[in-house]
Design brief:
The protein is an all-alpha fold. Helix content is 68%, strand content 0%. The protein is built from ten helices and no strands. Helix 1 crosses helix 5, helix 3 crosses helix 5 and helix 7 packs across helix 8.
Length: 200
C-alpha cells in the first residue's frame, strides 16, 4: 500500500481490497485502520461513520463498473445498439461474478438509501447508479423500445437476478451448464425478452 497517498484514499483502497478478497464481513473499521497503519480513530477524520466509509468503498465499485462499461461500449462502437446492450449485460453479470463482495456492497439498501447518509457524504451513493442506467436507457431507445426507461429498468432487474442466482448456484443447478456458456445464454434470453427476439 502506497504510504504517500492521502489517508482518505488509502482507507478506501484498503476497504476495496478487503471486500474483493474477503467479502463484506471483513469491512470492520478497526481492521481497515490497522491495515492502513493508523489508530482505529483516525478514519473518523474523513468518515464520520462506518456507514460513510462503506459508501465510499461502494462508490469505488460503481466507478470500476462504469469503467468496464466504457471499455465495452468503446469496443462495441461499430456494433448495433442491441449488440451493445448484450455486451453491457455480459459485463454487468461478469463483474458481479468476479467481484461478489463488492457487488453485494454496492447494492446494500442501507447504503443506497440517501436519506440515511451523512449530509457531507457526497456524491450520494444512489446517484452513482444513474450514469450506468442512463446508458442502458439510451440504448433501449435506439433499439426501438416504446418506453426506454421502463424497458431498461426491467432489463437491469433481469440481469441483476441472473447475477445473484448464478452466484448462489441456483441457475447452474437448474441449467446444468458451465459458467461462461450459461451466463451468455441467459443474457441473450434477457435481451430477447425485453427488446424482442429479432435483432435491431
Amino acid at each position: 500500500m502506497d504510504q504517500e497517498r492521502p489517508l482518505r484514499e488509502r482507507l478506501i483502497d484498503i476497504g476495496a481490497e478487503l471486500v474483493m478478497s474477503e467479502g463484506t464481513g471483513a469491512l470492520g473499521l478497526r481492521e481497515i485502520a490497522r491495515r492502513a497503519g493508523v489508530s482505529h480513530g483516525a478514519p473518523r477524520r474523513y468518515f464520520p461513520t462506518h456507514h460513510s466509509l462503506l459508501s465510499a468503498i461502494a462508490r469505488r465499485g460503481f466507478a470500476d463498473l462504469g469503467e468496464r462499461f466504457a471499455r465495452v461500449a468503446a469496443a462495441a462502437r461499430e456494433c448495433t445498439p442491441r449488440e451493445r446492450v448484450r455486451a453491457i449485460g455480459c459485463a454487468y453479470v461478469g463483474y458481479a461474478l468476479e467481484h461478489p463482495g463488492m457487488f453485494e456492497l454496492m447494492f446494500r439498501h442501507d447504503l443506497l438509501d440517501s436519506g440515511g447518509q451523512d449530509p457531507s457524504d457526497e456524491p450520494r451513493l444512489r446517484e452513482s447508479t444513474l450514469p450506468l442506467f442512463s446508458l442502458l436507457v439510451a440504448l433501449a431507445g435506439r433499439c426501438g423500445a416504446a418506453d426506454p426507461a421502463v424497458t431498461a429498468a426491467a432489463l437491469w432487474a433481469n440481469l441483476h437476478g441472473v447475477a445473484q442466482l448464478w452466484r448462489w448456484g441456483s441457475l447452474p443447478l437448474v441449467l446444468g451448464e458451465d459458467r461462461a456458456a450459461g451466463v451468455e445464454r441467459l443474457v441473450d434470453a434477457a435481451v430477447d425478452a425485453h427488446l424482442g427476439g429479432v435483432p435491431a
